[in-house]
Amino acid sequence: VVLFIIAVMTGRVVPMFTNNGAPGAQARREPRLETLALGSVLVLLAADALGLQGLPIAVVALLAAAVHAARWWLWQPWKTLRHPLVWVLHAAYAWLPLHLALRAAAALGWIAAGPATHALTVGLIGTLTLGMITRTALGHTGRPLRAGRIETAAYLAVLGAAVARVFMPLLDAAWLLPSVGVSAALWSLAFVLYLVRYTPLLLWPRADGQPG
């Protein structure tokens, strides 16, 4: 259900923010692909509710991963690399098809279930949350929608947390506990940076003198 909400929300805002914040970008939405992307998540939800396992789940998850990867590609992520406030949203969304692909691999018994879960939580939810709360805080405090060094460092830290938690145990099972420590440290750093940077902004009056 959370995955479906994220898929709906990102489909509305990421292409718009891309076109508004990355000059030259022409992110677009293809109606049939949008229907397939959202529908694939609902099919996966239904399959889970029915208790399906193994190959059926793997097929649904893998097809959903392909559809969401195609959707993400239409948003032209490569044109956002000079704009951290935008590329962080693309980086976050990239964890969605990766989560689905890892879930397919787990359903087939090729890997443990943990990496897919952490791709969803640490990768997708964590990065998307940080990307959105920095953007909204800047906008609603009357400041330019432009990420500085602190924001960029926070984005890289949360992405590093996800990479460590997902991929270190996949490379070597003995790295499970170290991956937890590295991921926790980077995750904490990311949100401490947000706290330090944005607490004053959110407590002081708007920079443009407007109410709110």
Structure description:
The radius of gyration is 18 Å and the shape is globular. With 212 residues, the protein is mainly α. The mean pLDDT is 95. Helix 1 runs antiparallel to helix 4 and helix 4 runs parallel beside helix 6. The chain has 7 helices and no strands. The chain is 76% helix and 0% strand. The longest helix is centred in the C-terminal third of the chain and has 28 residues. The two termini are 32 Å apart.
Give the secondary structure arrangement, pairings included.
Blueprint: H1 2-21, H2 31-49, H3 55-74, H4 84-107, H5 114-140, H6 149-171, H7 176-203
Helix pairs in contact: 1-2, 1-4, 2-3, 3-4, 4-5, 4-6, 5-6, 5-7, 6-7
Radius of gyration: 18 Å
Helix content percent band: over 70%
Element-by-element helix/strand order: HHHHHHH
Distance between the termini: 32 Å
Quickly count the helices: 7
- Tell how many strands the DSSP assignment holds: 0
Tell me the overall shape.
Answer: globular
Let me know the largest β-sheet: none
Residue fraction in strands: under 5%
Mean pLDDT: 95
- Low-confidence parts lasting 5 or more residues at pLDDT below 50? none
Strand pairing plus helix content: what structural class? mainly alpha
Task: Provide the descriptors you would attach to this structure in a database record.
212 residues, mainly alpha, 7 helices
